[in-house]
């Protein structure tokens, strides 16, 4: 059982990651913190709370984080996720309150009070985690590892060589990569493989419970965003769930320890993760980088988690 805090920017694929974290018996979701990324901070907060209301997990504390990247203006993911950040589905209004403290302080509270070390899972920009590491240096030892969806080796989805989460806040990503804390990075190399194929999407359509029906509607919208773009995928790549899926069964992935740096000053490459796969530099490996996934296992995990909801 992995004790986690999920820092996310819902976001269609964040919603699936959150659903798996709630459904899986292998994950103990201690808290959710939200970031400005796919949508502005107030919208991603609302989206996270709507999703937890839908899943009847109003017991999980939620707190909103930074309103913008550390040093830059916010890039929005509206082209992929729509004006609400979760376009395509009817979501319940949140029926509980978020915490009065910030994301940084909720993370600090959980790490202080929880008896075991906690895994931080990041499926949006690294802003909140970078702030936390900077403000609460004394709590770094309470972090088991940080698992991040972000970056790419030779791949991009927001720029030719840049992935959205890292590109939104490269300075924050650099703080996290340079922190010395155990890191697992799920870049586009593995995320692009984590696709749901049309027959699997059809299986999800046939699951009759309110959570599956909502996720199914969200996938339909998200598929339209992908369909009209240049990717040429056979299915629908679900980026963010790669993080919680790795925690559930790391054996379903291949990985390699590499040094991961973040470009913050490139004219064409700001936000690029520079992954030293062949150890060409003398930069010390700082992350386990995931490169491949057992796609069928992943799709079955999503489907089985959706089936587990009884309402
Ligand atoms: O590049 C993919 C990432 O950007 C995902 O986390 C998605 O939700 C968006 O935030
Ligand atoms: Ca996300």
TrEMBL record:
Q: Name one GO cellular component term.
A: cytosol
The record's listing under InterPro entries reads: I/U_nuclsd_hydro_CS, Inosine/uridine_hydrolase_dom, IUNH, Ribo_hydro-like
> What is one GO biological process annotated to this record?
purine nucleoside catabolic process
* Alphabetical list of CDD domains matching this protein: nuc_hydro_IU_UC_XIUA
Query: Domain Inosine/uridine-preferring nucleoside hydrolase, which positions?
Result: 4-299
Q: Does the keyword Transcription apply?
A: no
Coiled-coil stretches = none
Q: Which UniProt keywords apply?
A: Glycosidase, Hydrolase
**Keyword Hydrolase on entry:** yes
Where on the tree of life does the source sit, at the highest rank?
Answer: Bacteria
Q: Which PANTHER family match?
A: INOSINE-URIDINE PREFERRING NUCLEOSIDE HYDROLASE, URIDINE NUCLEOSIDASE
NCBIfam families linked: PRK10443.1
Protein name per its UniProtKB record: Ribonucleoside hydrolase
Annotated source species: Lactiplantibacillus fabifermentans T30PCM01
Write the lineage as a comma-separated list. Bacteria, Bacillati, Bacillota, Bacilli, Lactobacillales
């Amino acid at each position: 059982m992995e004790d986690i805090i999920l820092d996310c920017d819902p976001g269609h694929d964040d919603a699936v990651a959150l659903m798996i974290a709630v459904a899986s018996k292998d994950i103990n979701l201690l808290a959710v913190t939200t970031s400005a990324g796919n949508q502005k901070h107030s919208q991603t907060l609302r989206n996270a709370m709507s999703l937890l209301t839908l899943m009847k997990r109003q017991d999980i504390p939620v707190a909103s984080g930074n309103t913008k990247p550390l040093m830059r203006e916010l890039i929005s993911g509206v082209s992929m996720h729509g004006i609400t950040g979760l376009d395509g589905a009817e979501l319940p209004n949140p029926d509980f309150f978020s915490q009065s403290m910030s994301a940084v302080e909720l993370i600090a509270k959980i790490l202080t009070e929880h008896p075991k070390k906690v895994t931080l899972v990041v499926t949006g920009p690294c802003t909140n985690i970078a702030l936390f590491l900077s403000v609460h240096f004394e709590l770094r030892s309470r972090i088991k590892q940080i698992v991040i969806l972000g970056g790419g080796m030779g791949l991009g989805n927001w720029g030719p060589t840049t992935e959205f989460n890292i590109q939104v806040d490269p300075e924050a990503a650099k703080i996290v990569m340079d922190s010395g804390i155990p890191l697992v990075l799920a870049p586009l190399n593995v995320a692009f493989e984590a696709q749901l194929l049309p027959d699997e999407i059809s299986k999800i359509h046939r699951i009759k419970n309110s959570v599956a029906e909502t996720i199914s509607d969200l996938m339909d919208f998200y598929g339209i965003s992908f369909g009209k773009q240049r990717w040429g995928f056979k299915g629908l790549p679900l980026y963010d769930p790669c993080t919680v899926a790795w925690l559930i069964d790391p054996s379903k992935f291949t990985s390699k320890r590499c040094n991961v740096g973040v470009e913050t000053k490139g004219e064409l490459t700001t936000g690029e993760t520079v992954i030293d796969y062949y150890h060409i530099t003398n930069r010390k490996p700082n992350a386990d980088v995931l490169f491949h996934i057992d796609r069928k296992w992943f799709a079955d995990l999503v489907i089985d988690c959706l089936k587990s909801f009884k309402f």
